[in-house]
Amino acid sequence: MHATFIAASAAAVFALSASTAFAQVSDKPFQENWAPSKWGKDDSAGSANHTKNPANVKRAISMIKQFKSVTLGKYYHRDIPAVGTRRWNFVLTGTPNAGPFGQNAMVYHDEYIATEIGQIST
Questions:
Q1: Beta-strand pair 98-101/88-92
Q2: DSSP letters along the chain, please?
Q3: How far apart are CA 107 and CA 58, in angstroms?
Q4: Does residue 7 lie within any of the structural domains?
Q5: Residue-wise pLDDT tens digits, 4-53
Q6: How many domains in the chain?
């Protein structure tokens, strides 16, 4: 029982110190003056505003040399290359899972995703 009390006390001290450290880090954005954006308080485009400037667009187009495009998105699928036993699995459990409900005949669908938390196939 004494060992259990010591373990519980140590866990409580660790949890308190971790939450204090997190609180110190998470409060920082509220202390910094990072908003509103340089495009005004009602801006929602952010850096995409650079594309509204014809000179910026002309400069970007002048950099094109090979007239090729690259897909920057990543497609996740069952056969995606992965290291070791890592996998990415997505399952639709059935369609629809429930319904129809109400006047609008609402239905819903469930999904199940099983993957590694962290990097998978770059």
A1: unpaired
A2: -HHHHHHHHHHHHHHHHHHHHHHHHHHHHHHS---SBTTBTT---GGGGGGGSHHHHHHHHHT-SS------S----TT---STT--EEEEE--S-SEEEETTTTEEE--EEEEE-SS----
A3: 49
A4: no
A5: 545 455 455 455 454 444 444 556 656 666 666 788 878 878 888 888 89
A6: 1
